[in-house]
Specification:
Order of helices and strands: HHHH
Shape: elongated
Largest sheet: none
Amino acid sequence: MSFEELQKWRLYDAETPIDDIHTHHLPSATTSAVLANCHRDPKKRRDPYTADDFLPPWKELGDVGTPVSAQELTEKLRQVQDLNNNY
């Protein structure tokens, strides 16, 4: 990539940011979905996993800076444990 092209991308990013909260998590979420679908038992889970299943639940919990109550965190951890126990 030339310096001029880099400058154009910087200007474009300044006007229309291409970086959102999920951009950094999307590659690993996609990989996780592929791996989960490779090992998915269609009898237990009919629908395939998507990357959205592995993205952090920012929208459910509100803004990134919003504190999460101990009860909400405990419930989320319980859901993860239930998912892990199904394998």
